[in-house]
């Protein structure tokens, strides 16, 4: 990878990190879905953590039965990436 492309990728990573940390999850999941689907993003585990994905690991059934449908789908989509 050329130095210019490496710099651009680094700037994108920092932008993703910032967006993940300040994002208000009550605003929906369109932006988080864009982040995890971007090829330059390798912070999927952080998104899993920030979206309370640990709940899926602790009690999968409660996540599947949750009334937070969009969050459940998001967490499950990240989990299926691994």
Description:
This protein has 82 residues and is an all-alpha fold. The protein has one domain (3-80). The protein is 70% helix and 0% strand. The chain is built from six helices and no strands. The two termini are 26 Å apart. 16% of the residues are buried. The mean pLDDT is 78.
Report, as a whole number of angstroms, the end-to-end distance: 26 Å
Q: Quick one: biggest sheet?
A: none
| Principal-axis shape | elongated
Give the count of structural domains: 1
Care to count the β-strands?
0
Unreliable runs: none
Class from secondary-structure proportions:
mainly alpha
Mean pLDDT: 78
What percentage of residues falls in helices of 4 or more residues? 55-70%
- One letter per element, helices H and strands E, the order comes to HHHHHH
Instruction: Output the number of helix runs.
Output: 6
Please state the CA-atom Rg, rounded to the nearest Å: 14 Å
What percent strand? under 5%
Short description:
The chain is an all-alpha fold and 82 residues long. 70% of the residues lie in helices and 0% in strands.
